[in-house]
Design goal:
The chain has 357 residues and is an alpha+beta fold. The protein is 45% helix and 10% strand. Helix 1 (2-25) packs parallel to helix 6 (117-126), helix 7 packs across helix 11 (207-226) and helix 8 crosses helix 9.
Length: 357
């Protein structure tokens, strides 16, 4: 009993240390000198202030986070490696990634994510030290997450663990998703083809699998939002509207997901990797790598910026992705794209597939 109390206290202390580091690193820097470009100044200050934690040796990170998020032998990193090496993004191969703790089939989705909260908080604080944080959910985890949602939208409890029920009951849209998932599980393949778009819906691309993937993504985003050390909130709030972005510890991030449900000609194709992958990328990383400003225009014949080169590379390799043409196209619509071009899944509501501009 004494040992258990000591371990619990030690774990709580480590969590407090991680939160304090996040709050310290998120404190506002000194305003830029008169006549200095604010963006360049803040970029330089952030790089100087945050890089030292990203250089900590693995044993120190393991002590602070409970595991080593930089380990290349981590299951998530190992499973995602085929995507990182084959995707057409020019920065993917050299990107510095952290990953969530190894998946434990005996735990629920939220309990698995709980083991990575310290690492995710530190990742958010680093900003310029790490380019992305990866969460990998194996096929068994995706199936289990889809099976542990409430059976009805009236608040009826399922046999899922308490941590799962807490997330579900606090987010009504999760119940609506569960109904969609159960309906999809009884749909005929012809129904999927009609909604997903015919030829694109192959063995790897079905609406049921896509909605299951979207459901898992929603739970991951909701969990980390609720665990925000600066301001706990719901990721779904405001999603679908202008100006929405996933944020944690005061840092805005772009959410990219991959899944084996996407067909080979899709930009989020997983290149044979199985399960669902959620990649969090701080916007500061895009700024640091100077990818260029977001624009609806792309010079396909003679790309000028790294962003245009990446778009052209995806298109050249037969996996073009939708370029937002309207300000109403928010990051929430980019998280889980549909199987067809110019479509997205409303992961924040009922997992319906909608057209986007």
């Amino acid at each position: 009993m004494v040992v258990l109390v000591f371990l619990a206290g030690f774990s709580a202390c480590l969590t407090c240390i991680a939160v304090c580091i996040v709050r310290t690193l998120r404190s506002q820097p000194v305003p830029p000198p008169e006549g200095t470009d604010r963006t360049k100044y803040l970029t330089a200050v952030s790089k100087e202030r945050h890089v030292y934690i990203s250089k900590l040796p693995p044993p120190s990170l393991a002590l602070l986070c409970g595991y080593d998020p930089t380990c290349s032998d981590n299951t998530a990193r190992h499973d995602f490696e085929v995507v990182r090496l084959n995707t057409h993004c020019s920065f993917a191969r050299t990107a510095v990634l952290w990953s969530a703790a190894d998946w434990d089939d005996a735990l629920s989705l939220e309990d698995n994510l709980q083991r990575s909260t310290r690492a995710f908080a530190l990742f958010s604080a680093l900003q310029h030290g790490v380019d992305g944080f990866l969460v990998a959910i194996p096929p068994a985890g995706v199936a289990a997450a889809a099976a542990t949602v409430p059976a009805t939208s009236t608040g009826a409890r399922s046999a899922c663990p308490p941590s799962d029920r807490t997330i579900m009951e606090s987010c009504p849209h999760m119940a609506r998703m569960s109904i969609k998932l159960r309906q999809c599980s009884t749909r005929a393949p012809a129904d999927d083809a009609a909604e997903g778009g015919g030829d694109h819906v192959a063995a790897e691309g079905s609406v049921a699998a896509l909605r299951a993937h979207a459901h898992v993504v929603a739970r991951v985003l909701e969990f980390f939002s609720a665990d925000d050390p600066v301001r706990p909130h719901r990721a779904s709030r405001g999603a679908g509207g202008r100006g929405w972005a996933f944020h944690h510890a005061g840092v805005d991030m772009f959410v990219t997901t991959f899944s084996d449900c996407y067909p080979v000609n899709h930009a989020r194709y997983a290149f044979g990797a199985h399960g669902s992958f959620v990649l969090f990328q701080p916007y500061s990383s895009f700024l640091l790598h100077d990818v260029g400003e977001e624009s609806a225009h792309t010079n396909w014949t003679c790309p000028r910026t790294p962003r245009e080169h990446i778009r052209a590379a995806f298109k050249r390799n037969g996996r073009p992705y939708a370029v937002p043409q309207s300000p109403a196209h928010t990051d929430s619509m980019c998280a889980v794209p549909g199987l067809q071009p110019a479509t997205a899944v409303r992961w924040w509501a009922d997992c319906d597939i909608i057209p986007v501009d």
